[in-house]
Design a protein that fits this description.
The protein has 744 residues and is mainly α. It is 57% helix and 6% strand.
């Protein structure tokens, strides 16, 4: 391989999501890697095999293929599915309103909400092992009958049995530790120098340490593991204390375990240390407390001997599950209020209506909580269903006396019912929104067609209808804002039902008390709740099947990668168990390559779709000395249509204006009305503040299709190209040539 940049003008193409091959990026069948590795590399047409498709005269074309960072390994792709709640919680903070996060309040709230997801994860494993198996199933002959893998546990006293089963949650924490700690070897070597700030969490994309998140993720990772161990310690202590958590002799252990959780919360609320050495000094006392408290709780469980299991759930487990949901509800309400207040202030300064009313952060945080609850409820209920011979009990339909009372927490019943309601209401709201907006979208599409094809013949009527429907469908995503707001409201109301759980009332019990007709209402709600459990379980099982298929199918891995390309773009500053940020390698690597190429001549950084976001972030990281030789071409770009609206604090109009000024407005953006993803960077009816007149020259609209009539040399009319390709259009080559000529 020859990694030396050629002394000529270079067009460097960056692909979008789903991990396409270098051959497609270059539109050339034979390519060779000239830099990088198999994780992410730079490719050119093989010498002597011709030029790349769409190449401008006198300009060498190079492709950057980064798709394997998210979709190249089956194990990595499958593991990401299990980390979905953590990924969503990490994504939420990046959708905050513009302006400085004074006192770091939003970051603290998001980190605390993320901590509850770790507690939910541990409680799910505790619910399966300590509660359902160790406490409810093993003591009952009807439950352990025919299960030799559980029968041997009956010979152990309950205390040692629970202590032994505690190994499973500890191993689960170790697994997520390993997954979170492997910031993929592909990302190594792309962090900032030791002289630069590596604490992460900065507000500006041009900061040298912005994309380096290992310092922050490493700090949070150890705190979250300690938090998970503390949650396990409290659960174990509750199950092995004969007189409850407040019994004499167990007060010290209880205070120590609670103190461990409080210490974790305090550390989450403080700023991340700026050096590894300082992190270690602060975390040594934490781990000393973790080891001491865990050893104390395990020892107490072993010495507790044969404390009878009794009936019902593991003591304290119902309250712990309900308490976590209650904390999530309170945090979500506070996060919504703080975000709305910040957005109102930003709206008064900028005088425009924000997307989703500026509530993107609490909406995604609510989605993280909902997915976490779905995973937890599915795991606990499917395990209970299996152990209980396919019949999960409830207050209306109790178990037979010979079968253990396998009763999952009431909080999960409410979660299942709320999940079913959210799915039904969300589906209905989406259908209604798209139906009500169809006339308006078709009217907009009709006006575009009249402008583009004023002299269309009657023979083109069928073709025009197809184009109109394509344009109308491409605008559908903009109509889903109210649906997401409705989801936030439904999720908040679902979490509010935990107030009933605190006083021991489940869905069927409430229906039985309020209804009439001999308990018919309770039975109906019981069936609805069961349906909710099954619907949620089927969704989770579908994700697992998708993950299994990722092992066998590269196409499935690319499909899954679409979600992760969007969700793991930002650094991990909230939840350390989220999948690693691939931009931590892609952006510094692109910046390094562009800097090297710019020494030999003009460089046009060409980004398609999500690749345009990587290209924009790269330019913001380039040293000032090379900016005079760099230009930007974006096409099918979601920068203005999606990213500026969802992430206004980081890629809003001020950042895009700054980007254009850095490169002297050598920037062209190609877009089509038929493209469901791309659009203009700067809206014509809402020019960015303080932008130079040159900003109006950035966006170039392409008519699609190029013509309605069949070319004499062809047999079919020109296709509707939508999102791909763009490089085959003459405007593409014109833009490349223009920017190369303008570069010094």
């Amino acid at each position: 391989m020859d990694g030396k940049p050629a002394c000529e003008a270079v067009e460097l193409r960056v692909h979008g999501i789903s991990g396409v091959g270098a051959e497609r990026i270059l539109d050339h069948p034979m390519v060779v890697r000239v830099a990088g590795d198999w994780h992410a590399g730079f490719f050119r047409p093989r010498p002597g095999s011709g030029t790349a498709g769409g190449a401008a005269a006198g300009v060498a074309v190079e492709a950057y293929r980064w798709g394997s960072l998210t979709a190249g390994v089956a194990v990595r792709t499958a593991s990401m599915l299990l980390l979905l709640p953590f990924m969503l919680s990490n994504l939420a903070i990046w959708m905050r309103p513009p302006g400085r996060d004074r006192w770091g309040l939003l970051s603290v709230l998001c980190r605390l909400l993320a901590a509850t997801l770790t507690a939910t994860f541990v409680l799910a494993i505790v619910g399966v092992t300590l509660d359902l198996i160790g406490w409810q199933c093993v003591p009952y002959p009807g439950c352990r009958a025919g299960r030799p893998y559980l029968a041997w546990l009956h010979s152990l006293p309950s205390g040692p049995r629970l202590a032994l089963l505690s190994i499973v949650p500890l191993l689960a924490l170790r697994v997520v530790w390993a997954i979170g700690a492997r910031s993929a070897r592909a990302f190594e070597g792309f962090g900032p120098s030791s002289a630069q700030d590596t604490s992460g969490g900065t507000d500006d994309l041009d900061d040298a340490g912005f994309w380096y998140d290992e310092q922050t993720a490493g700090w949070l990772r150890q705190i979250h593991v300690a938090l998970g161990v503390g949650t396990l310690d409290l659960s174990l202590l509750a199950g092995t204390s004969p007189g409850g958590l407040g019994a004499p002799g167990h007060v010290v252990q209880f205070v120590a375990a609670v103190g461990l959780l409080v210490l974790c919360v305090v550390l989450l609320c403080r700023p991340v240390p700026t050096s590894t050495a300082r992190s270690r000094r602060l975390l040594r006392p934490l781990w000393a407390v973790v080891v001491a408290v865990t050893a104390l709780c395990l020892g107490s469980a072993v010495l507790a001997g044969g404390t009878p299991s009794g009936t019902g759930k593991l003591p304290g487990y119902e309250g712990a599950a309900a308490g976590v949901v209650a904390v999530q509800g309170v945090l979500l309400v506070v996060l919504t209020a703080v975000t709305y207040a910040r957005q109102r202030g930003a709206q008064q300064r900028e005088h425009h209506r924000p997307f989703l009313y500026g509530l993107g952060t609490p909406i995604v945080a609510a989605a993280a909580v909902s997915v976490g609850a779905a995973f937890t409820a599915s795991l606990v209920y499917r395990t209970a269903d299996t152990l209980d011979h396919g019949d999960i009990p409830d207050p209306i339909r109790p178990n037979a006396a010979t079968i253990g009372p396998l009763e999952p927490p009431v909080a999960y019943w409410w979660a299942a019912l709320a999940g079913l309601a959210a799915l039904l209401i969300g589906a209905a709201a989406t259908w209604a929104t798209l139906l009500l907006s169809r006339r308006r979208r078709r009217g907009l599409a009709a006006s575009i067609i009249e402008r583009d094809y004023p002299n269309a013949s009657p023979e083109d009527a069928r073709r025009l209808r197809l184009v109109r429907e394509t344009i109308a469908r491409s605008q559908a995503a903009e109509e889903l804002g109210p649906v997401l707001i409705a989801f936030l409201v439904i999720a908040s109301l679902g979490l509010a039902t935990v107030a009933l759980d605190v006083i021991g009332i489940g869905p069927t019990q409430l229906a039985a008390r309020l209804g009439t007709g001999g308990g018919a209402a309770g039975v109906l709600v019981a069936y609805l709740t069961d349906a909710g459990v099954w619907v949620i379980s089927l969704l989770v099982i579908s994700l697992l099947i998708l993950g299994f298929r990722a092992y066998r199918s590269s196409q499935t891995r690319r499909l899954v990668a679409v979600l992760w390309d969007l969700g793991t773009f930002w650094p991990r500053t909230v939840h350390p168990f989220a999948p690693p940020c691939y931009a931590a390698r892609a952006v510094p690597e692109l910046a390094k390559r562009v800097t090297g190429l710019a020494r030999g001549g003009p460089v046009v950084l060409s980004g398609h779709s999500h690749g345009s976001v990587l290209a924009a972030a790269t330019i913001l990281q380039l040293p000032p000395a090379v900016l005079a030789s760099v230009s930007l071409l974006t096409y099918g770009s979601p920068l203005g249509r999606t990213y500026a609206r969802l992430y206004p604090a980081y890629l809003g109009p001020p950042t895009l204006v700054d980007l254009g000024e850095r490169i002297g407005w050598r920037w062209r953006n190609l877009w089509r009305d038929t493209d469901p993803i791309g659009g203009p960077v700067f809206a014509a009816d809402a020019p960015p503040p303080r932008a130079e007149p040159a900003a109006g020259d950035v966006d170039i609209r392409l008519r699609d299709p190029r013509s309605l009539t069949i070319d004499p040399a062809d047999t079919v009319p020109p296709p509707i190209e939508r999102h791909w390709p763009y490089h085959t259009h003459a405007a593409y080559q014109v833009a490349i040539s223009e920017m190369v000529d303008r570069s010094s």
